[in-house]
């Protein structure tokens, strides 16, 4: 570092203050030693728990070795941004209405990738204004990064039995982002686990995707099935999905630590287009142009209209029998997509 640059301890304190001013709920700093996490990742991949998420293995060791992803990286600045909507329908209430569609709370507002990336860039700009040009790169679930192990090492929380990061003061309703940097900053201390003997998340999982504490078989996870999986949803799992049409929050909703979660102050994360408690029949009627218009700027758009209809068809198949549901399904029975037709046929069979 240049002689005119403030000492690393002072700069780290400034970075945390700037981060909080930019809306981050917590900021921590860690080194790049992820040897233990690398072993866990290798075991997870070897067991095939990643399913069709080939990108988890595609980049080799870059995911667990930050300096191979960005040469020169010495430290990782890890940040947290709370996203729990301050308004809108209660999650549990929506799950208890089988004719409503449940969308994971993280996807109700604007795409978090854009929001987080912009804030991380603003943080980098503040650092550069203070010390001059430096090496860095911002990440928000956008590259091979082990964000949860990094956040744990940076003192932002611990990885719970459901494999999400947990913080004592914020639960798990937050996004993570990182700045890889060549700045030799002091590192923060990790936080020990506070899950104890609790297994609420394991017991509540509708598809029993948490096969053991700290072990998630993504192939059974509803978030994977409704978002990552491109083909047909396995028939034995369809009845277990209920009315969840994009993601699943059950393991978070039941977690005792989420009693301390705080609603987000970020306007971009407020529910849009009534997706906090929509009627399945209404969503199933969206044409592709309507889907694209109403999911503009949303993480939901990434699955496309075809998988959107696939997911809703499953939820309609799980809903109570009604003439309206039968009519809605029959209207899509001859859809151009074989994927949609197959799931509609399954849903109709459930009702007839």
Describe the structure.
- [4Fe-4S] cluster 1 binds at residues 195, 198, 201, 255.
- The protein contains 16 helices and 10 strands.
- Helices cover 39% and strands 11% of the residues.
- The chain has 352 residues and is α+β, with helices and mostly antiparallel strands.
Helical residues, percent: 25-40%
Radius of gyration: 21 Å
Overall structural class, as computed from helix and strand content, comes to: alpha+beta
Uncertain residue segments: none
Number of strands: 10
The overall pLDDT average reads 95
Total of helices: 16
Strand order of the largest sheet: 1-2-7-4
Tell me the CATH architecture of the largest domain. Answer: 3-Layer(aba) Sandwich
Q: Please summarize the sheet with the most strands.
A: 4 strands, antiparallel
CATH topology tier name of the largest domain? NADH Oxidase
Spatial gap, N to C terminus: 71 Å
Binding site for tRNA: 230
Cofactor: cob(II)alamin; [4Fe-4S] cluster
Function: Catalyzes the conversion of epoxyqueuosine (oQ) to queuosine (Q), which is a hypermodified base found in the wobble positions of tRNA(Asp), tRNA(Asn), tRNA(His) and tRNA(Tyr).
Protein name: Epoxyqueuosine reductase
């Amino acid at each position: 570092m240049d002689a005119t640059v403030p000492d690393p301890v002072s700069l780290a304190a400034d970075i945390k203050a700037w981060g909080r001013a930019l809306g981050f709920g917590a900021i921590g700093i860690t080194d790049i030693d992820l040897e233990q996490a690398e072993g866990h990742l290798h075991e997870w991949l070897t067991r095939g728990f990643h399913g069709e998420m080939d990108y988890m293995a595609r980049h080799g060791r870059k995911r667990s070795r930050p300096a191979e992803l960005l040469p020169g990286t010495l430290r990782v600045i890890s940040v947290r941004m709370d996203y729990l909507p301050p308004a809108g329908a209660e999650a549990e209430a929506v799950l208890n209405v089988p004719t409503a569609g449940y969308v994971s709370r993280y996807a109700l507002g604007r795409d978090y990738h854009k929001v987080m990336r912009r804030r991380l860039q603003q943080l980098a700009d503040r650092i550069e204004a203070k010390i001059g040009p430096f090496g860095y790169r911002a990440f928000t679930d956008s590259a091979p990064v082990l964000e949860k192990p990094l956040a744990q090492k940076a003192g932002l929380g611990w990885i719970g039995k459901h494999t999400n990061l947990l913080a004592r003061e914020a639960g798990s309703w937050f996004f993570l982002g990182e700045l890889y940097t060549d700045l030799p900053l002091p590192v923060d201390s990790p936080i020990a686990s506070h899950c104890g003997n609790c297994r609420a998340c394991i017991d509540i999982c509708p598809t029993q995707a948490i096969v053991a504490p700290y072990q998630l078989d993504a192939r059974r996870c509803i978030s994977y099935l409704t978002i990552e999986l491109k083909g047909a949803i396995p028939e034995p799992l369809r009845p277990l999905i209920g009315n969840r049409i994009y993601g699943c929050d059950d393991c978070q909703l039941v977690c005792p630590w989420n009693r301390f979660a705080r609603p987000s102050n970020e306007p971009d994360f407020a529910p849009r287009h009534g997706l906090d408690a929509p009627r399945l029949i209404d969503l199933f009627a969206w044409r592709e142009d309507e889907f694209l218009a109403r999911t503009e700027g949303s993480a939901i758009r990434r699955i496309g209209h075809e998988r959107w209809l696939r997911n809703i068809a499953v939820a309609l198949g799980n809903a109570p029998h009604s003439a309206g549901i039968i009519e809605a399904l029959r209207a899509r029975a001859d859809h151009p997509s074989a994927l949609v037709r197959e799931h509609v046929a399954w849903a109709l069979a459930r009702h007839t």
